[in-house]
Amino acid sequence: MGSTAHHDREGVGRRELIRRSAALGLVAVPGMSLLSACASSGGDGQSKAKAGKKTAKNPLGVNDTAKMEFVLFDGGFGKEYAQDAVKIYQKDFPKAQVKFSATQKIQSTLQPRFNQGNPPDLIDNSGAEQMDMGVLVGKNQLADLTPLLDAPSYDDPGKKVRDTLRPGIVEMGQFDGKPVWIMYYAYTVYGVWYSQKALDSLDAEYPKTWDEMLQVCAKAKKKGMAGWTYAGKYPYYIPFSLYPMIGKVGGVEVLNAIDNLEPNAWKHPAVKACFEAYYELFKKGYILKGTPGLDHIQSQTAWAKGEALFIPNGSWVENESANVIPKDFDLAVSAPSGIDDNDKMPFGTIWASGGEPFIVPSKAANPEGGMEQLRIMLSEASSKNFTSKVKSLSAYNGGTDGIELTPGLKSGVAALKLAGSNVVNPRLQDWYVQLEKEKIGVGALGEMMAGRLTPAEAIKKIQGYADEAAKDTTIKHYKHQ
Amino acid sequence: MQHGKYRFIVGFLAVPLGLYALFVVWPFIQSIYYSFTDWTGLSPEFKMVGFDNYKRMLHDDIFWKSLQHSLLFALVLPIVTISLALFFAFMINVGGRRRRGGPAITGVRGSSFYKIVYFFPQVLSIAIVALLFQFAYNPDSGAINSFLRGIGLGHVQPLWLGDPSLALWCVMAVLVWSTTGFFVVLFSAGMASIPGELYEAALIDGASRATTFFRITLPLLWDTVQSGWVYMGILALGAESFAVVQIMTTGPGGPDYSTTVLVLYVYQKAFRDGQAAYATTIGVALLVVTLAFAAIVMRLGRRERLEF
């Protein structure tokens, strides 16, 4: 054996050199090379395809020889529905070359292309790697979809696309002012999800007021079943039933004030009443034990196994938990229970809104092609194809006749019918992602439902977060129109 | 030969150093540059904003919380991991009692088996480890709480990752579990090169195990321990801590910011909030912390080198 460090007086020792460079290399690793890939080597973008002639069959004036590129988020809905729609595009424009691809890594694939100025013509900007819509809009990266909305619909030339959509879809695509930047293709119903069979076994109906809710939970508890569970690790699932409840109790203005980040919006008595109602679920022990440590899948599994009766969720739960929901579960969704008969809006007031945001980049080479592809997807036939393949409603108003609906979907359609025009659409989760998920969701609601904050403390904390966001000049602010 | 030596070294190092400059140093410089802009990361346009991002960072509570957690990681993880690894390695290689007919210096019974077992976690990728522990920490049906129920502790059912006062420690435990094995192997290799006569001499002098460890093993292993320390600290500040926090924790980063770390915050700002410039600013802070950590460890660890 030699020595651990042989001191070579004649210069830099070999060992020393290796040791030093190794240390330097180690230091370098965690640093910031994360962002290095996105160098701003922005070119002048790509040349636009010349617009084609506008005709009755081609109202958007698509250049029938131009290439069209479509990138889809390959998530819970799969890609078949989009491929089917692409086939129709190819049939309509046989001379055009269509490049279709599906990926889960929307942002890693497309962020560099936005930076270089050559994005594709149509993108389903969805999933965990969704690119921030507010920033895309703020930086003028998106095309206004108004021409698409004002074009005649695919099925009926006498009807504009705009008039074939479900309530709230167009508004959701707007950020401030008239332009519509996003076309939400799926339609999600949020609310309280449960097993009709389990409810029947308790001799109960879905509770319309909070006293009834507590009674049902008490009954369930006697049978060894918890009243509620939720995605404890992602407490921003709680708003799916809490926000429409606030809307029902205090009126839609309360929700709008919250979205607009108005001072003291959260101090409204309706908010307090609803927070206290939810907190009571915790205090009375109606929440499944261990819930704050469960993620969405784990909580849905416990709920599907019958450990808990109710769960706040969206209509994707039917597909997502399909393998754990028993055959005879009889999945159903309801609008949230209110406080009592003095609520401002009737029972049935529900949160429903668009999902799967499709965008056409402003720097796309063939934006007309991208919009035309969307127009095709918003036809009755394509919408039916979507609904029957992925068990979700689409933005197209209708499109459920003549196809067999799953229990959850059927119940969703019924809930929408009951709601009529009483559909609310809170926007915090798409306007201010960090505020909604990390601060209000994890920082306050999750803490309150775990019993670590009282409703009053939670409200104070949330109001603080909202005031901070309102003052933050680094984020763009939006208002309900 | 002295004059040709450097040319010789440069000849060999030119290509690796060039790659290093291109893929490590240059991105660093770029990132520092971006931290003075308002780049969103979603469009090619941005303008210079001077020190705005840095001013904002100094008033950002979440940044300070992340920094606090990252520092705690860098402090606690190396101490725990390296102490455990040293203990295990010592027991495996030197800590055993003499068995009839065997060598004087040997590990505890079954040491070769332990060596393999300790190394197991190293074979799994950190993402898988994090997922596995996420299931174990499930308060409803996870392994840990089921075990507690099994031994009659049904009333002790912590929320683990759902409890702000436990979550950070849960995350650290996973990192300790997954990295200790590597250091056991590393230190074992180091210990194998310590001459047996030294131990025999100590034994004859009547030294206990503890004395042997502190007077012989540790001083002779000091170089390896020091490198291990730097490596572990960087791991705790960098990618590994990001992976476990991102995969396992509430939010991620919660509950109530109890587990957020600097790397996670960089990621969230750059890729969730579309504030790439601010993210690079936090990245610069992380760089400073990492460099400071390495410098402190190198300085504290400076010792007279022993020849043997």
TrEMBL record, chain A:
<dbReference type="InterPro" id="IPR006059">
    <property type="entry name" value="SBP"/>
</dbReference>
<dbReference type="Pfam" id="PF01547">
    <property type="entry name" value="SBP_bac_1"/>
</dbReference>
<dbReference type="InterPro" id="IPR050490">
    <property type="entry name" value="Bact_solute-bd_prot1"/>
</dbReference>
<keyword id="KW-0732">Signal</keyword>
<dbReference type="GO" id="GO:0030313">
    <property type="term" value="C:cell envelope"/>
</dbReference>
<keyword id="KW-0813">Transport</keyword>
<dbReference type="InterPro" id="IPR006311">
    <property type="entry name" value="TAT_signal"/>
</dbReference>
<comment type="similarity">
    <text>Belongs to the bacterial solute-binding protein 1 family.</text>
</comment>
<dbReference type="InterPro" id="IPR022386">
    <property type="entry name" value="Chitin_NgcE"/>
</dbReference>
<protein>
    <submittedName>
        <fullName>Carbohydrate ABC transporter, N-acetylglucosamine/diacetylchitobiose-binding protein</fullName>
    </submittedName>
</protein>
Automatic annotation (TrEMBL), chain B:
<feature type="transmembrane region" description="Helical">
    <location>
        <begin position="116"/>
        <end position="137"/>
    </location>
</feature>
<dbReference type="GO" id="GO:0005886">
    <property type="term" value="C:plasma membrane"/>
</dbReference>
<dbReference type="InterPro" id="IPR000515">
    <property type="entry name" value="MetI-like"/>
</dbReference>
<feature type="transmembrane region" description="Helical">
    <location>
        <begin position="276"/>
        <end position="298"/>
    </location>
</feature>
<feature type="transmembrane region" description="Helical">
    <location>
        <begin position="229"/>
        <end position="248"/>
    </location>
</feature>
<feature type="transmembrane region" description="Helical">
    <location>
        <begin position="166"/>
        <end position="187"/>
    </location>
</feature>
<dbReference type="GO" id="GO:0055085">
    <property type="term" value="P:transmembrane transport"/>
</dbReference>
<keyword id="KW-1133">Transmembrane helix</keyword>
<feature type="domain" description="ABC transmembrane type-1">
    <location>
        <begin position="67"/>
        <end position="297"/>
    </location>
</feature>
<keyword id="KW-1003">Cell membrane</keyword>
<protein>
    <submittedName>
        <fullName>ABC transporter permease</fullName>
    </submittedName>
</protein>
<feature type="transmembrane region" description="Helical">
    <location>
        <begin position="71"/>
        <end position="95"/>
    </location>
</feature>
<keyword id="KW-0812">Transmembrane</keyword>
<comment type="similarity">
    <text>Belongs to the binding-protein-dependent transport system permease family.</text>
</comment>
<keyword id="KW-0813">Transport</keyword>
<dbReference type="InterPro" id="IPR035906">
    <property type="entry name" value="MetI-like_sf"/>
</dbReference>
<keyword id="KW-0472">Membrane</keyword>
<feature type="transmembrane region" description="Helical">
    <location>
        <begin position="7"/>
        <end position="29"/>
    </location>
</feature>
<dbReference type="InterPro" id="IPR051393">
    <property type="entry name" value="ABC_transporter_permease"/>
</dbReference>
<dbReference type="Pfam" id="PF00528">
    <property type="entry name" value="BPD_transp_1"/>
</dbReference>
